[in-house]
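Recap for those who missed Tuesday's class. We walked through two folding examples back to back. For each one, the amino acid string is listed first and its predicted structure tokens come directly after. Nothing is annotated here on purpose, so try labeling regions yourself before you check the end of the notes.
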Amino acid sequence: MPNLIITNIRPHGGAETSITIKSGRIAAIGGPAEPGLKVFDGHGLLAIPGLVEAHAHLDKTLYGMPWYVNKVGPALLDKIDNERASKRTLGIDAHRQSARQVALTVGHGTTHIRTHVDVDTECGVTSIEGVMATKAAHADHVDMQIVAFPQSGLLRRPGTLELMDTAMRLGADAVGGIDPCSMDRDPKGHLDAVFGLAQRHGKGVDIHLHEPGEMGAFSMDLIIERAKALGMRGQSVVISHAFCLGMPDVAAVDRLLADLAAAEIAILTLGTPSRPVPPLLRARAAGVVVGTGSDGIRDTWGPYGDADILERAKILGMRNNLRHDTEVEQALDVCTHGGAKMMGISDYGIAIGKPADLVLLPGSCLTEAVVSRPVDRITFKRGRITARNGAAAFQVP
């Protein structure tokens, strides 16, 4: 691990100072340089903690492959069924493609990734194995968590539950679920299976909840009830998307937010332009931990996305009408500390003793950095430079 001092940087947009790094961790903030330390001059750049990609689908991206002409839709199941077939016809190799997206993501300043990886009766656990190989190969560049994800449903395709158990035994970090009512049409059975796997393997859960309005609120109530009954607290339960929290019934949403906070269940929001989304400031004010991510990028679902989490802060700000600098800073915090808390990572942040996972970037303040999204960033992972100017410092296939 390198020992160095980064001088003339402004942590969180504050006064210029220095950060001393020893054995990959922050040993001091401020103070004189010790003799013999390598000096890296930050030239007045901002310093923020490494960005956190808390919701990706690394096994699905077509990044680096020939352009895919999308004619699929409009229903969710249309996209799911097409994607399952396309994995074979397009030759989507989970290890190759996940490595490509890791390089792209790290190039933009990300130091932590949570990815949902498909498990189904056609691909089995091959995608899990492919992404696990990527996780091992790039352990020095990014910390990764893998969620075993039954994208095509857990109960509607017999054999999936057994494959999910295999994925957990292979080393997946959390159990995924999806739309207990509208996908499997058996909310009790679906949640019995998801939470049963989590209890058996001692892992958390992360459930995709696209269901809108009252249906989504009903599923969310069941998830909260189950988590409380099993004593699963401290962000070991995450609800991703949570579109039902964007419904217009303010009283109902505030009640759900209070229940989520009391149960210590985190939510993941993308600020999705096409759907109602959780109210960011109200959720945080209620005490709910909120993270964010890119979701799928450049895949059979859609052509958009470049895995830049700083752009996601901007999207969250625009989607939630955040205009004051202090509000935009909250959106950025969702992309750093919020995602880390959502993933259960306590060893994080710009503080003495924490891993030296940093992004240096230009800007007079944090809000300017969010809205301008400068390309010329420098990313450190445990004190080593992993990316400069939008490009990872390592090669992938």
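Example two. Treat it independently of the first, because the proteins are unrelated.
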Amino acid sequence: MAHFEAAIAMPAPDTPFWKVKTLAQMSAEEWESLCDGCGKCCLSKIEDEDTGEILYTSVACRLFDAGTCRCTDYPNRSREVPDCVTLSHANISQLHWMPKTCAYRLVSEGRDLYPWHHLVCGDREAVHRARVSVRGKITAFDTELSEPEDYFDHVLAEEP
């Protein structure tokens, strides 16, 4: 009777880290590299109290750079904007408002990154050319609106 050892499936050496690691296993550098730079998480959102539906607006955080789709003070964002949510492997699954295209959300759900993601295609501008980012879609910044109901004037028909 032949003896067979169970082979342990090892990923190929060139398998991307997001396919073999959980968010919790990623280094800080790997974690930060997952951000595709779409800027959707920096938009103000309205949650329908009755249905839980998330309505995206074209209103950006005061620290958002609409040209680069990046935070202008990323290291201090939580101090400067107290309601800024810092993503982590522990909270990503509870943040139902995260964009459907978000790499953090995709990896946490066991899905792969989109072809336009810079880690897949090698080009940080691809997200903008694919029109997945909010570049060119910002109509106001949160500091420009004085009343909560003003945000309703900026509601988008769908997730940008």
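Answers for example two:
The chain has a mean pLDDT of 92.
The chain has one domain: 26-154.
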